[in-house]
From TrEMBL:
GO molecular function: DNA binding; DNA-binding transcription factor activity
Region Disordered, residue ranges: 206-244
Keywords assigned by UniProt, alphabetized: DNA-binding, Transcription, Transcription regulation
PANTHER family recorded: REGULATORY PROTEIN GNTR HTH, TRANSCRIPTIONAL REGULATOR, GNTR FAMILY
Protein name: GntR family transcriptional regulator
HTH gntR-type domain sequence ranges: 9-77
SUPFAM superfamilies in the record: GntR ligand-binding domain-like, Winged helix' DNA-binding domain
Amino acid sequence: MTLSSPQRSALADQVIAALRTQITSGEWPVGSRIPTEPELVEELGVARNTVREAVRALAHNGLLDIRQGSGTYVVATSELAGVMQRRFADADPGHVAEMRAALETSGARLAALRRTEQDLAQLDALLARREAAWESGDAERFVEADASLHLGVLAASHNDVLTAVYADLGEVMRDFLRLDIGEELRPEAHMDHARLIEAVHAGDEEAAAREAASHTQEWRCGSGRKGNKATKSPRTAGSPAERP
């Protein structure tokens, strides 16, 4: 994707747009490391300073995180997602859980009503990917796969506004889920999402909403984080461990 060479500022804008497209299209998913500066220079056919300017601009806008000695990573899929992540980093975990419940329950209900055959095939693939991620024992891989499945359900609702809002809040929820599951995946913490996808397949709006609600009710949403405003789980002492 070699670019033309007009004025430097306009060229930098072109590079920013090209890199943003790689992010928003999912070509560079959240959590992935983008190509190195020399690789981008070669791929885009522009000067090193132009690439550096574009990367810094996207980092400033919250889409990229430049980590010295490690590389540059995608941390959000839009400028709004980056703003959301910063704005709600210290939010009350219970409020995040309530927000997630509202969006996912509505999304699941609509998905059961509006899903297409293509949506169903995608959801089946995402469910299989989530299960494979769990079996791998890789916590970060599971977080990404779990988030992708839930976003897939929202996408099957065919409500662009609902899906966009959920996507922009996605990294907020990933952050809390990471805190919930920790660095190790515990067998007792696994929650099967097959019934949710089965309900969407069946077009059963009530069952889909019920399954989505049950998942969010059992999600601690980072409630164990030190220094957070909500440190107590709604479950009673001696109850089973809550699951992501």
